Amino acid sequence: MTITAVPVIKNGCLMVRGKVVLTGVPGNVVISPASSGSAFIGASSTSSSSHHVFNLGVLENCKFMCLFIAKIWWMIPRVGKSASDIPLETQMLLLEAEEESALDLVDEETPGEPASTNKFYVLVLPVLDGAFRTTLQGTKSNELQFCYESGDPEVQTCQAMEGVFVNSGDNPFELLKDSIKILAKHKGTFSHLESKKTPAHLDWFGWCTWDAFYTDVSPSGIKDGLESFKEGGISPKFLIIDDGWQETVNEFQKEGEPLIEGTQFATRLTDIKENSKFKASESGGSSTNLKELIHDIKEDYGLKYVYMWHALAGYWGGVLASSDALKKYNPKLAYPVQSPGNIGNIRDVAMDSLEKYGVGVIDPQKVYDFYNDMHSYLASSGVDGVKVDVQNLLETLGAGYGGRVSITRQYHDALDKSVEKNFVDNNLICCMCHNSDSIFSSKKSATARASEDFMPNEPTFQTLHIASVSFNSLLLGEVVVPDWDMFHSNHDTAEFHGAARALGGCPVYVSDKPGKHDFKILRKLVLPDGSILRARYAGRPTRDCLFVDPVMDGKSLLKIWNLNKLTGVVGVFNCQGAGSWPMKQAPECNENSTTPPAAAVSISGRVSPLDVEFLEEIAGETWDGECAVYAFNTGSLSRVPKNRTIQVSLGVLQCEIYTVSPIKVFNENVDFAPLGLIKMYNSGGAVEDCTFEDSIRIKARGCGLFGAFSSKKPRWCKVDKKDEDFTYSSENGLLTVNLQTESSSFKEIEFVY
């Protein structure tokens, strides 16, 4: 009997690769093959509506990981074993299956043993279908349902034919990539990241003004901050001037009266130009307008890129309909209507306010003119790009505009068009945009924030942040470069956050207040020229972490993998015991237990070269599986076969980063592997090339202590063709040479044996 990979419904069961995934599939559920072994699942109803909930069948006793919108703006992960664990607003569901046991529960893996080879993965992805958006949800009786909604009472249907996409594969990361490519081609409403132009700021260190000043940002504050970075020897090359520069009004705030709580979210934009703070000359300052400020700070502080913040609707409360400057965009006051899914999860205080006070909505037919007018003005002032925030607001404003998908797509198309016209390098950062309306309407935008904000004053949010960005990057990382947000270099968790940013494949930027910097941390992230050692892909959980809860199960470490040009990297983070997921109860403690809480003890785990997916692609055909593994914090260097592991133990909010470099044989008698700049978190990001001829030649980026593994001591070393001293340890094979600070970004290192 031939087992096909294409999902089918047979005898009331959804089958994938001959295995039962769902039982009790209702008769109104249909399946239609897509390409490359994938399929769409849909359903029909006897009546038309703008909002349907269809049963798909029963899902029980299987490991899954899902991503869902907990609060209207942001996704978080959840793991579980049955459909009752799947929340409302779930936008991705990944199941782990066994070839032999049809999604039966798998025993816990023996620590340190490689994963069994008979696993495969099933992706269930709710997508956009015409004017409708789909999400998944579970019931207490373990029924998996899909919700199918337009967001406009006038946009109705009784047919939901392509609401849910199903695909399977042996590698979960390839499965996601292949599936997003299939969907991008089939739907035509969005693009895979590989076909997009990525913004220029990603490879440079940056500073965002938000936490430093909040809305009190001013030219003098910006200059103070840039000056304090300069004095410490590390200057940002990109700057985000966040909320606080625009001309806005709170209609509900009467002069001399106290603020009515909530009305701040209904503040509206009154003009596309900067407010008085950025026009008037400040005492001691020379800038008289935004254009002169940007010219001055680029000249004085070496900034390459300056981005300005604005909301997708102009501002949080949209635009002021009575504003003379904005009337030409036909704005109308509308009152948001949230979906049942949003209301059923965590209500957001900003949305509660906007439901009461309304949003000034720009006519979708005029929104390109609005963006183009604002962006062309900003570009003429020297601005290089924009951060566009509060994007998911549009999903609540679809009534009268063809629905939530329709209005979102019109705004995104206009935004893409304006950014392409006015900013050279697709310089756009999208934010608060995790709904699938935005994800699957992203044709050109190439970077987006990956989680809720870094919250410096919330100690229980730090571990959740790292777990969220890595899991969310599984989906987001196929459509955009995930932005893991700013952090503070001078903070209790700076090492934890800095290490994560180093291997996240994301931009690295901080929101330090002027004078509040830790340059020791920053020097582990930023080269003297202001560039960073950014890894090649989005940092994502290792395969053995996909179906565990690294925040609340009390036993699992979070491992995040990535690749550089010639090395792999694995970051290990103890996210246990310092916070709890929203909407999830912590496991009850046994009163008689003598076990200390998770926060009080260290947690142990295993790290293997196999944690780095696709390592063989950079290792080459002659690689025999041996790796040099360098631990950043302990400085230990180990020789590890690819199918073996090393143990790591970490206390709460501690981390370790392992550079994994495939060992190759030079001249038949020297085992060698470059490690990179070993005083920087992502050491291997500094290795550009390594060739074996009469000698070993390495092209390296940056300066500092460069390390390599070598089974023998070289006779001599040259850097840029000049003899250079080196150190060698015969105990562990660590070979180091100091690369001096010079103007050249790249250096050629030669080892002669």
Automatic annotation (TrEMBL):
EC number: 2.4.1.82
Catalytic activity, reaction form: alpha-D-galactosyl-(1->3)-1D-myo-inositol + sucrose = raffinose + myo-inositol
InterPro entries according to UniProt: Aldolase_TIM (IPR013785), GH (IPR017853), Glycosyl_hydrolases_36 (IPR008811)
GO molecular function terms listed in the Swiss-Prot or TrEMBL record: galactinol-sucrose galactosyltransferase activity
Gene3D superfamilies for this protein: Aldolase class I
KW Oxidoreductase (keyword) present: no
Regions crossing the membrane: none
Record's keyword terms, sorted: Carbohydrate metabolism, Glycosyltransferase, Transferase
Family that this chain belongs to: Belongs to the glycosyl hydrolases 36 family.
PANTHER family xrefs: GALACTINOL--SUCROSE GALACTOSYLTRANSFERASE, PTHR31268
Protein name according to UniProt: galactinol--sucrose galactosyltransferase
Gene source species: Sesamum alatum
